[in-house]
Amino acid sequence: MTAPQRRRRTSRQPDPPDAGEAARKEGETQNPERLFVIGGDADGERAALDLVTLIVARADPPASATPEQAALLRLCAAPLSVAELSAYLRLPFSVVTALLTDLLAAGLVQARAPIVRQTVADRNLLEAVMHGLQKL
Amino acid sequence: MDCKSSDTLPGPRTEDRLPHTAEAAVKIVIVGGFGVGKTTMVGSVSEIRPLTTEETMTQAGIGVDDDYGSASKTATTVAMDFGRISITDELVLYLFGTPGQERFWFLWNGLFEGALGAVVLVDTRRLEVSFDVMGRLEERGVPFVVAVNSFPDAPRHPVADLRAALDLPEEIPIVDCDVRRRASSRDVLLTLTRFLHSLAAKGALA
């Protein structure tokens, strides 16, 4: 088979110099790590929210709510992920997390934390996902 | 583009609302080079019409040519398509896939780190477009399976040859699929979930 040949990389180890050079062909930026999310670090405290953290409103929008806050609270009358809120509000993820940080502090929304991959994997969770997919 | 009446806020259709019992969500990321079918796969298994979220990233100006003269930072908007599958009344699975700009997703904090795993879609006509993304998953210890999207005019290779070309260890599943078909895309996700389960059984999840 005349296919290009890939070389496997290992977990959390820097590339050897030669492999690094090869990986950066095709005009890629040399140091993409210099990119960062706007406001992610410097802009004060943010609640730890994942794209798939489920948000549920705990109250109707108060009179003092900004239009964005009111729209967000109405959207999550039923549980909705931060990603879906970002999509429907047409706001970047980091802007939505900033809005949610204020709403969480005010007790107007509840955040249901996502299940993230951990060192000790949850086989029951994976079995639930398998059964759910089989029903599709 | 959008055709909504001015007095209606955008939001989920009634049938797209999650039940109040939805307690937790997990995510799987679909990666691969440009044009291999990631967005098609998200759309074929999602219970909602795929949505798009975005993030704005900045790039420090050191050594970067930009068009803004003295500007020290340039902003890049990274978009991601995603879909949703309700697993139970309590558990929801989100699938993320994106039209391109792969190198930026890895800077989206938490996208891969919190994901259960990833599907790497490959097109046998252009295997090499998936190389970099596989390497990045390996570096981060994100478990993945490889799904070969069967385009009609794509060459078909024995799995052993593909495994050698992709330099993948024996335990990583390589499966054929047609991402336009819901059942086929679902089977790829099942393959990934079974693989993750086998890793969990071995206690090998990083």
UniProtKB/TrEMBL annotation, chain A:
Region (Disordered): 1-33
Gene3D superfamilies, sorted: Winged helix-like DNA-binding domain superfamily/Winged helix DNA-binding domain
Entry superkingdom: Bacteria
Pfam families reported in the protein's UniProt record: DUF742 (PF05331)
Listed Basic residues bias regions: 1-11
Stated name of the protein: DUF742 domain-containing protein
Organism of this sequence: Streptomyces tagetis
UniProtKB/TrEMBL annotation, chain B:
Pfam families the UniProt entry points to: ATP_bind_1
Top-rank lineage group of the source organism: Bacteria
GO MF: GTP binding; hydrolase activity
Keywords tagged on the record: GTP-binding, Hydrolase, Nucleotide-binding
Entry keyword annotation includes GTP-binding: yes
Signal sequence extent: none
CDD domains per UniProt: Ras_like_GTPase
Family label: Belongs to the GPN-loop GTPase family.
Name of this chain's protein: ATP/GTP-binding protein
Species of the source: Streptomyces tagetis
